[in-house]
Automatic annotation (TrEMBL):
This is Extended synaptotagmin-2. Residues 474-573 are annotated as: Disordered. Residues 523-532 have a biased composition (Basic and acidic residues). Belongs to the extended synaptotagmin family. It comes from Aptenodytes forsteri (Emperor penguin). Its main location: membrane. Residues 533-547 have a biased composition (Polar residues). Residues 5-184 form the SMP-LTD domain. The lineage of its organism: Eukaryota, Metazoa, Chordata, Craniata, Vertebrata. Gene3D superfamilies: C2 domain.
Length: 740
């Protein structure tokens, strides 16, 4: 079995190895010239901050696989996904002289999928106009600190913890943050720095049914209810629903809107948790491929939750296209009832995209002849965002992007104020009614705006575009060809086993034409803003996405995306795993002796099993394909009824069990079934795959039993690439060796 979408690229690793000393020089410059001044300016307490040593180490970054997209892409761009891992023994030492504080970093690990976009392709050398780099989702990041406690005692940093620091760093690596490197001067980089999202995903987080009861009473004798809530992720935007107390069939009826910058590759991730005073229990997860949502435009379905034994979730997902014309606006306003109310929030009818370039001739702050520390405060209705601070200049250059969801552009304004952070005073402001954009060509304005209450020639240069959010499809250029071969949104395990049929869509209830109440969206809008807002350097450090609760459910396992292990207190073996009982092994040994009967059995007396094993860093899952078995032992005169069951040790809970179908009356069954376990690459390399081939027999039949076992330690360098192999089955799984 080959995985043609991801290819190895050893030549690339050899190239990176050769370039590594020069990459290290670049990183050192970045630390000294960019990061150090930014940290010094961020807070008065940090004004004596400096790096005393920067050594990234000799171990170069590794590229485990490369995927090149050939479908669903514009003909003028090339999209590559690089599966990256960096395990480096670095030495980065820093000190804050004022507080005699020294700290540092001993080692760093980063694992994730980095997207590289080469665009636009041009007809002159070097053929590529520019390249953009970013992570599609938060990479797994582990930092081994020295002296972290000293650092966290410094005033201004005492609200931090290592988890929050990791999260802030990770967020800076993820969309919509990207590094753009121009290769040709004529390329209008402003175009690349003005990324317009591919679409907006409106998520109606409606209800769930039949969730697991996690809260117990009387020391576990009485099973109780759960207090469920959901965490929804698209890229680095995180939303959290309200908690519904003591309910296994909760109804949330909340609406969230998320920007989608990239697909293929971005997914909607949902995790449900049960709120607890100590540690929140996991209630299931779901991953939905956004390509499918874009194709369908509207999905209203019940989805079976993954990684748990029961529970399903009702979602309504709308894919909204960004239209550069206002012809559909009235229709959109009617559909979200924005034409009736006078509110400034609710569901959005448009998206405001803003590129803040620079300002000129700003007045000096309160002191004459002193340069201000300017920052820009942008607001639409109740939503406000802040730019970074530029220090000691009256000609600041920001080059930052902002996006705002707009309820009704006919009535709302964009308010812009330039402030001096040092003296907390205004340096000028202006107000732009969004109705002016509706009259502009392509709903876009790119110009210098004059500031009021400012100097005589004070201007601010911005590019502003409005895009109407429409559920209807935009006429595509022939460059955009769609491939119909996309995976169905997060099929449940059972559906995957039987056949690739999608879930039956929910028939709309009689009152389905009533829009979902818009009130919950106000809450989610606030959260969206904080998720989008770049961390203002002058603010006291905070959880970057400002979740309304503590990070109790999120900080576990440093965002390694293995939700099934967030809540593991002590894995309890499930009753059905009789394989763990020594009796089954003894019976098998006895049967082997009967079969042997004086003759010497071959190399693999219990037969063999063929498996494909690989880890997908893009999906953060271990994927196991059970192909077939050969030469199994017969359990009765009619042969055996074999099936395969698997655990990823040490997790032997029922929810961690994977089973194939039963193959009747055969010693050479063919299964060809795919299974996955949600687990990160560093984590999976510490685990063991426990595979057992068992005889089904009838209910309570004495013919149930073990046909052979296999234990595969997964600490292999080749796991990202994957392999297919025949393995010998043994009585207890020990001494497995590949047959071919």
């Amino acid at each position: 079995v080959h995985f043609p979408d991801t290819e190895r690229a050893e030549w690339l690793n050899k190239t990176v190895k050769q370039m590594w000393p020069f990459i290290c020089q670049f990183i050192e410059k970045l630390f000294r010239e960019t990061i150090e001044p930014a940290v010094r300016g961020a807070n008065n307490h940090l004004s004596t901050f400096s790096f005393t040593k920067i050594d990234i180490g000799h171990q170069p970054l590794r590229i485990n696989g490369v995927k090149v997209y050939t479908e669903n892409v514009d003909k003028r761009q090339i999209i590559l996904d690089l599966q990256i891992s960096f395990v480096g023994n670095c030495e980065i030492d820093l000190e804050i002289k004022r507080y005699f504080c020294r700290a540092g970093v001993k080692s760093i690990q980063i694992h994730g999928t980095m997207r590289v976009i080469l665009e636009p392709l041009i007809g002159d050398m070097p053929l590529i106009g520019a390249l953009s780099l970013f992570f599609l989702r938060k990479p797994l990041l582990e930092i081994n600190w020295t002296g972290l406690t000293n650092l966290l005692d410094v005033p201004g940093l005492n609200g931090l913890s290592d988890t929050i620091i990791l999260d802030i760093i990770s967020n800076y690596l993820v969309l919509p943050n990207r590094i753009t490197v121009p290769l040709v001067s004529e390329v209008q980089i402003a175009q690349l720095r003005f990324p317009i999202p591919k679409g907006v995903l409106r998520i109606h987080f409606i209800e769930a049914q039949d969730l697991e009861g996690k809260d117990t009473y009387l020391k576990g004798i009485v099973k109780g209810k759960s207090d469920p809530y959901g965490i929804i992720r698209v890229g680095n935007q995180i939303f959290q629903s309200k908690v519904i107390k003591e309910n296994l069939n909760p109804k949330w009826n909340e609406v969230y809107e998320a920007l989608v910058y990239e697909h293929p590759g971005q997914e909607l991730e949902i995790e449900l948790f049960d709120e607890d005073p100590d540690k929140d229990d996991f209630l299931g997860s779901l991953m939905i491929d956004l390509i499918e949502v874009e194709k369908e435009r509207l999905l209203d379905e019940w989805f079976t939750l993954d990684e748990v034994s029961k529970g399903k979730l009702h979602l309504k997902l709308e894919w909204l296209t960004l239209m550069p014309t206002a012809e559909n606006l009235d229709k959109v306003l009617t559909s979200i009832r924005a034409d009736k109310d006078q509110a400034n929030d609710g569901l959005s009818s448009a998206l405001l995209i803003l590129y803040l370039d620079s300002a000129r001739n700003l007045p000096s702050g309160k002191k004459i002849n002193s340069n201000p520390n300017p920052l820009v405060l942008l607001s639409v209705g109740h939503k406000a965002q802040e730019s970074k601070i530029r220090y000691k200049t009256n000609e600041p250059v920001w080059e930052e992007n902002f996006t705002f969801f707009v309820h009704n552009p006919k009535r709302q304004d964009l308010e812009v104020e330039v402030r001096d952070e040092q003296h907390q005073c205004s340096l000028g402001n202006f107000k732009l009614p969004l109705s002016q954009l509706l009259e502009s060509e392509d709903l876009t304005m790119h110009q210098r705006f004059h500031l009021s209450n400012s100097g005589p020639n004070s201007t601010i240069n911005m590019k502003i575009a409005l895009r109407v959010l429409s559920l209807e499809k935009q006429a595509r250029s022939p460059d955009h060809q769609h491939s119909a071969q996309v995976k169905r949104p997060s099929l449940s395990k059972d559906a995957r086993k039987s056949s690739f049929k999608p879930h039956v869509p929910l028939s709309p209830p009689p009152d389905s034409n009533k829009p979902v109440p818009a009130s919950p969206a106000t809450d989610s809008d606030k959260k969206t803003d904080t998720a989008e807002k770049s961390q203002p350097p002058n603010a006291s450090p905070q959880w970057p996405t400002d979740l309304s609760r503590s990070s109790s459910s999120l900080h576990a396992s440093n965002f390694s995306y293995s939700p099934s292990h967030l809540s593991v207190k002590e894995p309890t073996p499930s009753i059905a795993s009789d394989i763990s009982l020594p009796i089954a092994t003894q019976e098998l040994r006895q049967r082997l002796r009967q079969l042997e009967n004086g003759t010497t059995l071959g190399q693999s007396p219990l037969g063999q099993i063929q498996l494909t094993i690989r880890h997908s860093s893009q999906r953060n899952k271990l994927i196991v394909v059970v192909h077939s078995c050969r030469n199994l032992i017969a359990f009765s005169e009619e042969g055996s009824d074999p099936y395969v069951r698997m655990y990823l040790l040490p997790d032997k809970r029922r929810s961690g069990r994977r089973k194939t179908h039963v193959s009747k009356k055969t010693l050479n069954p063919v299964f060809d079934q795919i299974f996955d376990f949600s687990v990160s690459l560093p984590e999976v390399q510490r685990r063991t795959l426990d595979v057992a081939v068992k005889n089904s027999g009838g209910f309570l039949s004495k013919d149930k039993g073990l046909l052979g076992k296999l234990l595969i330690p997964l600490a292999s360098e080749e796991l990202a690439k994957g392999w297919t192999q025949w393995y010998d089955l043994t009585e207890d799984g020990t001494r497995p060796h590949g047959a071919s």
